[in-house]
Amino acid sequence: MDGPAHAYTYPDVGLLIGGDWIHDRAPCHHVQNPANDEILGPVPGATDADLDRALEIAQKGFEIWRKVPPQERSALLKRVAQLMRERAAEIAPAITLEHGKPLADAEAEVSRSSSFLDWDAEQLLRNCGRIVPTQHPNYQFVVREPIGPVAAFTPWNVPVSAAGRKLAGTIAAGCSVIIKPASQTPASTCLLAQCFLDAGLPEGVLQVVHGNSARVSEKLILSPVIRAVTLTGSVEVGKQLMRLAAEGVKPALMELGGHAPVLIGADVNPAKVAELAVGGKFRMAGQLCVSPSRFLVHEKVYDDFTGEFAARAAKLKVGDGFTEGAEVGPLVNFRRIETMQGMVDDAVMRGAKLLSGGNRVGNKGCFYAPTVLGDVPLDARVMHEEPFGPIAPCAKVADMEEALRIANDIEVGLAGYVFTNDVELADRLSNALECGSVAINQFTSPGADAPFGGHKESGIGTEGGMETLDAYTVSKTISQRRVNI
Q1: Average pLDDT in the chain
Q2: What is the spatial distance between Cα 395 and Cα 447, in angstroms, rounded to a whole number?
Q3: Which of 28, 175, 190, 289 is catalytic?
């Protein structure tokens, strides 16, 4: 594992309230670089007075922004997207510093985030109402209106992509938004927020706050100002925020955890699938909600696939995200290393074979070796708990019906993957998998132009596609008589 090779300065983190950045609050915590254990900087915590002011300003911002014509909102979002692309050389290193992912992945995240803004800038112009025919000489209209101020909570693994998606949707719809980034990755979200300010977003439409997650979420969600909640995060956190939202009968858009199955049929070239699997599984050290995390392989190709998969995983370059050629960065913190080791030890104790990895790398930073486990029994933790790290458990199946049963036999369903050259089988499996998105013969996830969300405990609602504004708008029916009174 190689050390860092960069000269980037970590940006100042602040609260954004009423168009002003606030840096002089007592730190709620300090951000740590997961690649070298160094402290990057303090994060100012919002006081109760700060949160009250943010809520008050968000209400005023909503009253202003909801009246702005769609064409002007669209033009602003396009300016934000352009600023993001121009500032990628500033935003991407901030992501790598606080998250650890390779710089190329951080740059790709900035590009992906800007695509959400471009899409929503166009989609908001198609947020049309309709005229409903009636039997009487009346007019009946259905219009879509912004729901109101939104509380948004974003994760550490894709701090700009997740934030960009939520800010694009809320602001496109005409809502104001208060966003709380993850404590591990606040700076990149602050840089994104600055793009909105510089693009001309009126003060009060977007606020950024930091602090204790439980305290901030309760304060915001229980406030009568907030009319909708959106989260990308874990199932456990999602359930808690939904309970808070239920107190005020507020809709909640939840993109929660997954445990993506990979169904590999008997008719594939196992070496080719293994090559794709290494890139799909160990990208960003497996810290993606759509990361393939259960490999269910037909017995006819199982040995060839797992052998090639493990050999390729062992050759991946683990290192600081700024290091030339680094393919696998660190985990976000040391607790994740403990979780990885616990899952590996549990699987091996139950009879799994350690085919590659299975250990921490180096004595500095939060690096864990790309790990492939073979013959993993179904009762192993890693088969029913999302690893969210560089562990790939493999299990042998007699046919794809068995693979399908195993894939669906958990309470989450975000993403799924199918590899086969049989078109009929691919169609049948993709329709039967209980998840929000399925990729066939590739590892990919929906972009800006398609809805993304989960089934079962993986979430409620979707982001992106034609449905991108649904969570942030409400329908209103207006009936008007044609006669004078």
Answers
A1: 96
A2: 30
A3: 289
| CA 478 centroid distance within chain | 37
Q: Are residues 233 and 342 in the same domain?
A: no
Q: What pLDDT is recorded for position 408?
A: 98
CATH number of the domain encompassing residue 121: 3.40.605.10
Residues 205, 190: Cα–Cα separation, whole Å: 15
C-alpha closest to that of 34 among 126, 98, 80: 98
CATH number at residue 291: 3.40.309.10
139: part of which helix (H) or strand (E)? Answer: strand 138-146
Q: Domain check: are 196 and 92 in the same one?
A: yes
| 44-53, 207-216, 472-481: least confidently modelled range | 472-481
Query: Range of 359's domain?
Result: 260-449
Q: Clarify whether residues 40 and 145 are in a common domain.
A: yes
Positions of E strands within 375-443? 391-397, 412-413, 415-419, 437-440
Q: Which helix (H) or strand (E) holds 280?
A: helix 270-282
> Considering 255, 308, 457, 463, which one is annotated as catalytic?
255
Residues 80 and 156 in one domain: yes
The bridge status of strand 415-419 relative to strand 437-440 is: parallel
Q: What is the pLDDT of residues 86-125, one digit of tens each?
A: 999 999 999 999 999 999 999 999 999 999 999 999 999 9
CA-nearest of 117, 98, 114 to 159 is: 98
Q: What is the pLDDT of residues 116-137, one digit of tens each?
A: 999 999 999 999 889 888 877 6
Residues 404 and 464 in one domain: no
| Cβ–Cβ < 8 Å for 464, 449 | yes
Q: What is the pLDDT of residues 348-363, one digit of tens each?
A: 999 999 999 999 999 9
Q: Are the beta carbons of 292 and 313 closer than 8 angstroms?
A: no
Tell me, yes or no, if 195 is annotated catalytic. no
* Positive or negative: CA dihedral 63, 64, 69, 73: negative
- Greatest alpha-carbon pair distance for the chain in Å reads 82
128 is catalytic: no
DSSP state of 286: G
